[in-house]
Write a structure and sequence with these properties.
Distance between the termini: 110 Å
Strand content: 35-45%
Helix content: under 10%
Order of helices and strands: EEEEEEEEEEHEEEEEEEEEEEHHEH
Length: 298
């Protein structure tokens, strides 16, 4: 009988199935500069891409940064684009919003533009119990374990945006507010986006909030890719949020319009009131004269 000692090693193998989940769900909308929802954007016209982000995890998450990786035909309206989510915390089931103001440049004949990717830089806000995840009860500054954990990058491909050509672009130059009974100047800069002369008829329509001093109708011929200014004086008649006089443009030149534009306006007179309303502000806050005198005294 052998006295040799035999060593036996036992290995236990456990298989654990981990079902990955998507940490976020996204809802993407395009808004005009007047915050109206858009189904169609126009080349050269600024608009907002609004991204609603919902936390689908059972943890409180902290965003370090967010940005938009743009397509080469998409430009930011301003060079300063600070993240709205930077250093913000998002509790489970809650929704946070990120917004970018962009302009689609015409670089091809495609009717759909790929805007780019939304990039989120984030991590868990704390590493305690899942049942203890209320962000207002956690001191994140003292949580050293969470602060040493590297950030995770999540990328979301934004859906294509329907875009089209349009013969002109309007940009309004106006003050941030007005005073009752004190006139001021409103300027509409109209840019011809065509390679031909654009003939238009500009008209103003009075309302109960403002009186108009000066011309209410003007015929313009705008050279290709040039800018003309339609300016007028108005004086406020009421206080509060007041609606501007309606501004109308009729295109007199023989210009080809897309079927989407014709369907949207549902007319053949080439007067595009609903499109113009998305280009220019419609309201201005008017202060009473008494407040101005009080401010001067102080």
């Amino acid at each position: 009988m052998s006295r040799k000692i035999i060593k036996c090693s036992c290995i236990q193998e456990n298989k654990i199935r981990l079902d990955p989940i998507q940490p976020f769900t996204f809802n993407i909308r395009c808004l005009s500069m007047q915050l109206n929802e858009l189904n169609l954007v126009r080349y050269g016209e600024p608009f907002f891409i609004l991204c609603d982000i919902k936390n689908e995890t059972p943890f409180c998450l902290k965003f370090n940064n967010s940005n938009l990786t743009k397509n080469k035909f998409v430009k930011f309206k301003s060079e300063e684009n600070e993240s709205l989510l930077k250093d913000e915390n998002l509790d489970p089931g809650k929704v946070a919003s990120e917004c970018f103001c962009v302009v689609c440049e015409q670089g091809s004949d495609e009717k759909n533009i790929f805007p780019g990717e939304l990039v989120l830089e984030w991590k868990r806000a704390d590493f305690g119990s899942v049942l203890y995840q209320k962000s207002n009860e956690i001191d994140y500054a003292e949580n050293k374990e969470a602060s040493n954990v590297p950030n995770t990058n999540s990328k979301f491909i934004l859906p294509n945006i329907s875009a089209e050509k349009f013969p002109f672009l309007i940009e309004a130059k106006l003050p941030p507010y007005g005073w009752l009974g004190k006139e001021f100047t409103i300027c509409y800069e109209i840019t011809n986006k065509l390679d031909q002369v654009l003939e238009i008829e500009c008209t103003l329509e009075e309302n109960e909030y403002f009186g108009i001093a000066g011309k209410k109708l003007e015929l313009m011929e705008i050279m290709p890719f040039d800018v003309n200014t339609f300016s007028f004086m108005i004086y406020p008649l009421k206080v509060g949020h007041c609606q501007f006089p309606s501004f109308h443009i009729k295109v007199q030149s023989p210009v080809e319009f897309s079927e989407a534009v014709k369907k949207q306006e549902n007319n053949s007179s080439y007067s595009f009131d609903s499109i113009i309303k998305n280009m220019i502000p419609s309201l201005l806050f008017i202060f009473p004269e008494q407040i101005e005198s009080i401010l001067k005294e102080t």
